[in-house]
Design goal:
It is a single chain. By secondary structure, the protein is mainly alpha-helical. 80% of the residues lie in helices and 0% in strands. The protein contains 6 helices and no strands. Helix 2 runs parallel beside helix 6. The chain is elongated, with a radius of gyration of 20 Å.
Length: 161
């Protein structure tokens, strides 16, 4: 199995577990509030943290599947070779963004949360763990973009214009 397929499978399972946990958490939150008349103290905070993780890991997964939101007007009007060149450039921009904002900025965010000793109010979880998904997701997106660039370059060599 190719490395990309293995990462996709791991992300799929991870996202299913996170989403299932999120659903169970929210159901318990509603049940404890309205059925038991005793709202749970941690469920709201856990739902927020799980939503952060689902959103960021889901963004990496969708990038890997090339199913992210995109405006395809220009690429669809280009010849195959030029379309591939444009897609290489777009993936390069994604790498720059992920490296500067998500990996560097996210790592700084995680580092400062740990250094300041910030913990969540209800769960008492260090916030550095909560935000660690930002640089992880950025690294995954960089991997997917690099793999896409390599595939596009090899496809471009095969295309005769």
């Amino acid at each position: 199995m190719h490395l990309r397929a293995k990462i996709d499978k791991i992300l799929e399972v991870f996202l299913v577990v996170l989403t299932t946990t999120l659903v169970v958490d929210v159901v318990w939150q509603v049940a404890s509030r309205y059925i038991l008349s005793n709202p749970s103290s941690f469920t709201d905070e856990l739902a927020v943290f799980l939503l952060i993780w689902v959103g960021m890991a889901g963004a990496a997964y969708v990038k890997g599947k090339n199913e992210h939101l995109a405006i395809d007007i220009l690429p669809d009007k280009l010849k195959p070779k030029n379309k591939n060149r444009l897609l290489v450039f777009i993936n390069f921009l994604i790498i720059v963004f992920c490296l500067t904002i998500m990996v560097t900025g996210g790592a700084w965010l995680v580092y400062t949360r740990f250094q300041m000793g910030q913990v969540s109010s209800a769960l008492q979880v260090p916030l550095g763990f909560v935000y660690s998904i930002v640089p992880i997701s950025g690294l995954l997106m960089i991997y997917y973009s690099l793999d896409d660039i390599l595939n596009l370059i090899s496809a471009n060599k095969k295309i005769k214009q």
